[in-house]
Design goal:
- By secondary structure, the protein is an alpha+beta fold.
- The chain folds into 2 domains: 73 residues; 48 residues.
- It has 3 helices and 5 strands.
- Strands 4-3-2-1-5 form a 5-stranded antiparallel sheet.
- A hairpin with a 2-residue loop joins strand 3 and strand 4.
- Helix 1 packs across helix 3 and helix 2 packs antiparallel against helix 3.
- The longest helix is centred in the middle third of the chain and has 32 residues.
């Protein structure tokens, strides 16, 4: 069990989970491969138990990183509401300067995360550059 998580560990877990999601591989795929491997192993020459334990540990780690990423995302979404009324700068390709600055008027939640409302326009959280 992890007692404390630094920013680098959190970003690594997030990056791994996102990478696996983008590749179409998830914990269900991993478990399916493991079960198939056990199903078709040679009964006269079974898999080495250390390899089996190693694969289960890898599966457990993947599942914990996925859970950690989900929990961190939920915490982020809940803390975003405290930004209403603050001034933010967001990247904005439609603006000639490349960014927009304004007061955060509200928060909208989408499947891929929260968006801040500035000047009546929603900007995804990933586009927020500065909040003051």
């Amino acid at each position: 069990m992890i007692s404390s998580v630094g920013n680098s560990s959190a970003s690594t877990a997030s990056a791994l989970t996102q990478s696996l999601a983008n590749s179409g591989v998830n914990k269900d795929t991993f478990l399916q491969l493991l079960v198939t491997q056990l199903k078709y192993q040679d009964p006269m020459n079974p898999q080495d138990s250390t390899q089996f334990v190693s694969q289960l540990a890898t599966f457990s780690s993947l599942e914990q990183m996925t859970t950690l990423n989900t929990n961190m995302q939920s915490s982020l979404e809940m803390s975003v509401t405290s930004l209403i009324g603050k001034t933010a700068t967001v990247t904005d390709k439609t603006n000639s300067a490349g960014y927009t600055t304004g007061t955060i008027q509200g928060i909208q939640y989408y499947a891929d995360g929260p968006a801040v409302m500035i000047n009546g326009q929603p900007y995804p959280w990933a586009q927020v550059q500065n909040v003051s």
